[in-house]
Amino acid sequence: MRRLSLNARRIGEEANTAAIEVALICIEHPGLEAPVRLSSDPTERLSVEPLAYGTRSTWCAANPLSDPYLFVLASVEVPSDLEDAPAEGVLVLENVDRDIATLLRSFTDRARIHLAVVLAGSANLIEVEFRDMQITSAEGDVGEVSLSFSRAPIEEETVPMDRFTKNRFPGLFR
Q: What is the pTM of this model?
């Protein structure tokens, strides 16, 4: 069962509410100097020149003053809780620069992505969190970039770890 704060529960039960759910996204890769922090809501104005909006939160070890989550036009499909379906989600960034597609194609290893859902009024209180997911595919064109992410593939796990020898598994050789 998923835990929700009382505010989130109250918002879910109200017919009309002014509270806004915000998706916070943190993308990490060894090739990046610092994690990329993105927000789905222009919670507050961060700077005038250049004009930038974003959300300040301490989630994912971010300093709210120096490392805000920058607002981007994005839609997020969070991973499902269903048993039969894989925990896969999709992040679509809209109105992106052409250089982003080139950058996404330049990586040979997978980047990690963390996703959290918070309320705009209480950005430090995490309602739902998905940590240590891996970006499995990235497709882009001039208008948008679509990132698919999932748990670490079980196909990459080393199985079997041990060899089935008489010394290691004597019960198999009776």
A: 0.74
